[in-house]
Amino acid sequence: MQPITDWLQKLGLGQYAQRFVENDINLAILPDLTDQDLKDIGVASFGHRRQLLRAITELKDGETGTPKPATEYTASVTPHDTAERRQVTVMFSDLVGSTALSARMDPEDLREVISAYQKCVVETVGRFGGFVAKYIGDGVMVYFGYPEAYEDEAEQAVRAGLELVASVKSLRTRVPLQARVSIATGLAVVGDLIASEVHEQGVVGDIPNLAARLQGIAEPNMVVIAEDTRELLGNLFELEDLGARDIRGIAKSVRAWATLRPSTVEGRFEALRAGSLTALVGREEELELLHRRWAKAKTGEGQVVSLSGEAGIGKSRLTAALLEAIVPEPHTRLRNFCSPHHIHSALYPIVRQMERAAGFMHDDTSQGRLEKLNALLAQTSTSDHDAALFAEMLSLPNDGRYPALELTPQQRRQRTLDALVSQVTAFTRQKPVLMIFEDAQWTDPTTLELFSRVVSDVEGFVAYYVVYAPDDTVTAISIFNDYAGAEESNRRALAWIEQSLTPLPADNSMDSMIEGSSFWGLLTRVEIGHIRIGSSCG
């Protein structure tokens, strides 16, 4: 199994070697692996799975399954030209002050520093689906959207850039390090760059040059983006407009922005569609069904609604239409957004929802955040003990206003879940509650346990709205209502959750509405097959 270990280490993913060995995976069967296979053996990181699948596709034919070296491409063997025109996002990361470092450091020490920096770049961008294209001195050029295309490549590039700047800054090396990152997006010709003696995959066009030239206006620890990248981000990030700049090597002035941090906007759908939404077309029946089920839920009658369909068919637009329609109605909305980058962060969507509800700002002091948290918890008369647990969950220091907690990790976990369940219960005593989990395929185990406990334990008027797309094969929107004494409904709701949070087979021909269920009469399911709908429903 040494070859597979060497291959993984070369990719910077040596931490998975033991999992490959334990599952008897060798180089010969690598081409047969799928994304689900990688998940099953324990590769939980979305970015790492992309990196592995990309590397697998690049393996050349042969008994050993190892890539052919570039020297095998000679004038007598003309490889197939696979270049194509497509959109790509290019990132350029540069180590600040490397020239000064080379003047005062021993070459071996400098090599150690640069190696640590480059390893940090590879590991960081890999988590966001980046492809390291080449090293240029101490700079690194990274592609997003190539070799594998995906719709949010610009967003992932910017998130990778912010994470990279923070990671380089925290590296423990002989000298403190800083990086500057620049990003540009646009059309380019990508694929094989073939010459008589070399064979290289790359990007041809203005975009790599623009990304590299933007370095000139970036300050240390800054992520600078070009205009085309900015247009794809909506309100996902807080940005500073740097204005139009004249950049050496670029004929026209270039408008640029500095990326400060992710925004606090409530959801991705709203962030990417900052303006007013166009009319919802062709989904009147489904929307009316959601309204009828929500009306029943408010009266205490248990409900489950499942809406399934392929990516981009209009699920988020339909959700937005429902949420907009019930704004005038008295209710408490607890909206939670899961993230593929935080599937191992316990209660991540709950933490973010509470931060938004409390009105936390990035420049708030710890004292200011504690005051805002107290104001939020006062609405439900939360006990000091539970408030201490919430402060700890939000990584806030206890300044003496809360009792000290002497708990084991397991006790702290269970009592935090108890406190969160009590919080939802308190809300239901005031008005109906709509508790929403979006992108629940990326829910961490602790949040999923909390969700199950709320469904089974909360007595009162509460609705649960779950949006998820496991492996892009099915998406479900579920509304539960749990009311006093409905133990059987609770049990069946939990059974439905366990069943529905696994992928269902897609039916390309289905475009129907099904009311009722063999195991729960209050289940309503709407399944939308791979059909075409107007762009206004996107």
Quick recap:
This protein has helices spanning 2-10, 17-22, 35-40, 46-57, 98-104, 107-126, 153-169, 206-213, 227-231, 268-272, 284-298, 315-325, 348-358, 366-378, 384-393, 409-428, 445-457, 487-500, and strands spanning 84-95, 131-136, 139-144, 179-194, 199-204, 223-226, 237-245, 254-262, 304-308, 332-337, 433-438, 462-468, 476-481, 511-515, 523-528. By secondary structure, the chain is of the alpha/beta class. It has 3 domains: 1-64, Transcription Factor, Ets-1 (DNA polymerase, domain 1, Orthogonal Bundle); 69-263, Nucleotide cyclase, GGDEF domain (Alpha-Beta Plaits, 2-Layer Sandwich); 276-346 and 414-537, Rossmann fold.
- Total domain count: 3
Q: Can you tell me the CATH topology of the largest domain? A: Alpha-Beta Plaits
CATH homology superfamily name of the largest domain: Nucleotide cyclase, GGDEF domain
- What structural class is derived from the secondary structure elements? alpha/beta
Corresponding CATH architecture of the largest domain: 2-Layer Sandwich
How large a portion of the residues is in β-strands, by DSSP E?
15-25%
The CATH class of the largest domain turns out to be Alpha Beta
Q: How confident overall, as mean pLDDT? A: 76
Question: Spans of 5+ residues with little confidence (pLDDT < 50)?
Answer: 60-80, 194-199, 470-494, 496-538
Rg over alpha carbons = 26 Å
Count up the helices.
Answer: 18
What is the number of E strands?
Answer: 15
Helix content: 25-40%
How would you sum up the major sheet? 8 strands, mixed
Task: Tell me, briefly, the overall form.
Answer: globular
How far the N terminus sits from the C terminus, by CA atoms, comes to: 47 Å
